[in-house]
Amino acid sequence: MLPEAIEELISQLSKLPTIGRKSAQRLTLHLLRQPEFELNEFGNAVLNLKKNVTLCQRCFNFAESDLCNLCQSAKRNHRLICVVEDVLDVIAIENSNEFNGLYHVLHGHLSPLDGVGPDELKIAELIARVEAEHDPEEVILATGTSMEGEATATYIADKLAGGNIKVSRISQGMPIGGDLDYADSLTLRRALSGRREV
Amino acid sequence: MLPEAIEELISQLSKLPTIGRKSAQRLTLHLLRQPEFELNEFGNAVLNLKKNVTLCQRCFNFAESDLCNLCQSAKRNHRLICVVEDVLDVIAIENSNEFNGLYHVLHGHLSPLDGVGPDELKIAELIARVEAEHDPEEVILATGTSMEGEATATYIADKLAGGNIKVSRISQGMPIGGDLDYADSLTLRRALSGRREV
To answer: Domains plus CATH for chain B?
Structure first.
């Protein structure tokens, strides 16, 4: 019914997560209305995505050379290492403007049912990194607060225990702007047990 | 913070309707995990989108040659013309398997506030088409049921009045599977005034 080139892009867009066939149709028709040069920019951005992208050899963030921009920066505190599950978490924490150290991207969390054990993650690399770097101060475990994220944090904390490095976990409790009656009971329980004197 | 190639694709994806920056980040990270050949397929689909695509000279659907697949098909009833606002509507009606005629795509609806008058749409082309074709039987006005869609249908009906061609409008009423208490009052009013004896 539609020209092949249009069907092809609809089917390519449908493969993306969260984009169903109807959305793919709408996006494709939107793109058909764009000038040729914008399509070229978009298409080339897709083609070039992986061309110059590699993983940072220290923190496994995306990088354009051996080390990522953050690991190269002299403005960052190289003695703090924040451990996260993936690169989206790096972006999220950077946007919070609360952290000035370096990261360590595990590229996932422990999930035995999916066949993800410690060897599938960059955990050995983290231990080696902590041992190799001179004078690291603190490792902040910022994996997710799901069961898998918790298990991953606990596993790493165990591995790092006994060294003379401080290991911390991000705090858990009520999200900001949240109404108590909308919070799930586990979050409320954590918020209560983690209460601080004011 | 991220390599330029990644930032570039995030910004390209963010330009698409319904895709915000966070979704664009997620989609980009998903794409980074795909094998190179899939990225090439996707990128080339974008680059080639408009290469072989033109508008059908009769109905203004997308086409690969002078006439679209539907206008070329001998299996369709060429005496029925279904007038729609855009190509997504053609897809939707085709999926309903209820219509076997040809289409006429207006590429929009009348919207004076946005500067869209009759000359911006393929209305003159529709009138000329109806006059030029031998023995057309019926024009079905299947523009949307918004105020603009209604106005467009009324405008075209006026233009076609006086010829000896039947002009019809798609019916309006309760959508199938809809609960009456969720329907807006205008839809309910139409459903009542358009009631049929059973």
So the answer is: 4-48 (1.10.8.420), 70-169 (3.40.1360.10)
